[in-house]
């Protein structure tokens, strides 16, 4: 036997691959094989689709945003309502799929990492539904910031393990989950929530999230008789973005736009803009664009949103940006907050802080497109989990003055 | 192939001993004092030094080495500074001992693979261990290292199936690093019972010496494992000893483990 080379395994151009300790390689090979078989098995696809319909509440609507459309004065704005999926975000699409895959593989327990807690809640939910024990690793800082989601995970029967190392955020939670997986790899499946990590995870997560874009395709044809002119999504690790954008990669007339965390501003180093300012590197098992210093040390990312302060990004998105297929922009913490209030007040929807970044770039994009065009914003999750963070800052006077 | 590594194993064997590959983190607690730790380990009997270069996100390491990485990064231990400031000093004080760098692929990528291979070799490094670079990802870098005369030392895990383990061993440079437990680096009170048969399988296939590491902290464990390998790698136990009690403690632990490796 000779060991194959990396030329094509799980690669998106130069990105992707499988950079993990040897201990994990056999598990990743097993996962790849099991997933390939599951994907080819119509019964598995039917099972996933059925749970998504009966339990998650799919399909989620494509809602016209009339008041935003009027206020922005450009393209017709449509919201893909992942906030209406069970547990309040798109994350559940992937965890249902992966937990069913784990059951198929005969795994006895599940571990996961989480940043904002949405993926943790979604994993805990899928585990409760199918009766598997679940452990979620979460940065200690995020445990503090996202108390509501910590409670939800515990209520669902999951064990939350706060990670006190490093920046105490998502990147450290992912390190710790990987370390745990290395020692428990035989009977444990690690449910990664971002379209990141070693091959085959970026592909698995993308495939399970692609249902978002597939529904948008169908719905846009039905609602306005054509594909959207542009689709915009926030990007942390990138699971909602790749999910809504991937089905349109071949449709050159559809503009694909990602919005990253600009944090305190790109000049400050306190941001999460790895597609905008990252350089090629290896983090958490895949080669992609990462925020790092000249010595290859990973930088701590910052965002008001716990789901976006990740210094890496999924390899497929890095590829789409590098090849020019996808546009990338950023929104600062303040712009996201402003967008949060704007959307809440004009559409009656409290968007997650992650999603608020996508909205923050919505106005300019709507105007760039112009009237008669159609813009879809992926409403990746709802903002209930963020209200404590946002309320702690107080409602800005400018907003109260304008709207109350 | 560097040749120095094979020579060190042969020397230990001629003395009737298994080889001790001793790990410490360069820059822990600071750059000069880590040189003292490396020198002390050689005084204690270490046959090969493994020089840890810190990475911010060390997924293959347990808490002891992870915390050492954080201290080293605070002390400014970049790969460049380790090669330019730590390695030459260690060479000076331990001219006979082969030096091996252990770090993560991103650190090497940031410097550039070719640039690293050339600089490392120039400074007297014989080999490199990259725990997050499995064979599927390493063919390119191995060719670069081969051209520079730097050994890319492969790892083999308890979860590695036999055919794969044999393939890894057959292609090995320097020595094969057999990870003794499924897990991260760190001390263990007990080692797996089926370890010896796995080590024998790798030994049969490998043209170079084989070592076992991860979890070894006592002379007794070194004796048990040393019977089935050409040497052992000790990391976390030495890092902890040096951090708690300084270079002398690392010297003493090396001497103790060497006693366990006498045949």
UniProtKB/TrEMBL annotation, chain A:
One Pfam family this sequence matches: PALP
| Pathway of action | Amino-acid biosynthesis; L-tryptophan biosynthesis; L-tryptophan from chorismate: step 5/5
N6-(pyridoxal phosphate)lysine, modified sites: 91
Q: Which cofactor does it need?
A: pyridoxal 5'-phosphate
Q: What InterPro entries does the record point to?
A: Trp_synth_b_CS, Trp_synth_beta, Trp_synth_beta/beta-like, TrpB-like_PALP, TrpB-like_PALP_sf
The enzyme's first-digit EC class, named in words, is: lyase
What this protein catalyses is: (1S,2R)-1-C-(indol-3-yl)glycerol 3-phosphate + L-serine = D-glyceraldehyde 3-phosphate + L-tryptophan + H2O
Task: Provide GO CC annotations from the record.
Answer: cytoplasm
Q: Which controlled-vocabulary keywords does the entry list?
A: Amino-acid biosynthesis, Aromatic amino acid biosynthesis, Lyase, Pyridoxal phosphate, Tryptophan biosynthesis
> What domain of life does the native source organism fall in?
Bacteria
Classification via NCBIfam families: trpB
Spell out the subunit comment. Tetramer of two alpha and two beta chains.
- What role does it play? The beta subunit is responsible for the synthesis of L-tryptophan from indole and L-serine.
Please report the name of this protein according to its UniProt entry: Tryptophan synthase beta chain
The coding gene here is trpB
From TrEMBL, chain B:
Q: Which residues cross the membrane?
A: none
Q: Does this entry carry the keyword Amino-acid biosynthesis?
A: yes
| EC numbers for this chain | 4.2.1.20
Alphabetized, the UniProt keywords read: Amino-acid biosynthesis, Aromatic amino acid biosynthesis, Lyase, Tryptophan biosynthesis
Q: Which reaction is recorded as catalysed by this protein?
A: (1S,2R)-1-C-(indol-3-yl)glycerol 3-phosphate + L-serine = D-glyceraldehyde 3-phosphate + L-tryptophan + H2O
Q: Which residues form the active site?
A: 50, 61
Q: Which PROSITE patterns match?
A: TRP_SYNTHASE_ALPHA
* InterPro entries found in the cross-reference section: Aldolase_TIM, RibuloseP-bd_barrel, Trp_synthase_alpha_AS, Trp_synthase_suA
Q: Which SUPFAM superfamilies match?
A: Ribulose-phoshate binding barrel
Assembly information from the UniProt record: Tetramer of two alpha and two beta chains.
The UniProt similarity line reads: Belongs to the TrpA family.
Name of the molecule in the record: Tryptophan synthase alpha chain
Q: Which organism is it from?
A: Stigmatella aurantiaca (strain DW4/3-1)
Q: What is the lineage of its organism?
A: Bacteria, Pseudomonadati, Myxococcota, Myxococcia, Myxococcales
